[in-house]
Amino acid sequence: MEFHAPGRPEDLPPFGVLWARAAALAALEAGGSENQHVYADAVVHHDDGGGNEWQLARIEGGRGVLVGVDHECGYHMDIEGYDPYAGPDWLPWTWFTALENNREQGFAYWWGGSSWDRIDYPDLIDNDGLDLLLTHLSTAVEATEKVLEFLDLWPSTDEWEEGSHLVHRVLQLAEQGTSIEEGWRQALDAVLVFAARKDSRYLGRQQDEFDISAALAVARATGLVKGFDAGVKPAGHGRPQGWVPRLG
Q1: Is residue 229 very low, low, confident or very high in pLDDT (cuts 50, 70, 90)?
Q2: 15 and 205 in contact (C-beta within 8 Å)?
Q3: Whether this model's pTM surpasses 0.85
Q4: Which domain of life, per UniProt (predicted)?
């Protein structure tokens, strides 16, 4: 999938697909296979540790929001009056307030149930960072490679091919959304057993640090496991009077 600079709503996969991939990586992260995706409170948060991050939230009513910032594409946030939140009333204003009080966001995209949208950018914005932050979730292949990056593996080796097959199976289950817990247990366990045999690029983990129960808990909480509903944030009911970015 091609990404434009600045990003366009049509660059993103449908929300359900994007959520499935992000949540699958968060489940693996929770189980010990590090990949920089963490789930909590209806949000998958990716932070690369270098000043670049995004957060994907599920909102009640089958809706969703993606916000993020890349430190190389943040100058436009200094444009007077720049407001990426000029969207529909149902946007999660309480959550946005918490986000902005912590860190100013560079972009916001919202899914109303059938398509992505964002504000119309002024011509001065040549890149909002979407193409730098989200390409690894553009396809299941890219998402698989993101997981394998954190293991001491080389592409085109037998180990890479083995790991790729196992991680891709997890992503496949996530996108299909029809697997019961036992199927998820088998798929997640296969990846975690594989990862436990390898050394993390950044942290040397021991085998007992890989926890299938933690991975399954995230798979259930994010709605990947059949029969479990994903957590959602409440929808807003209109932009609060006087609300502007960086309230704090």
Answers
A1: very high
A2: no
A3: yes
A4: Bacteria
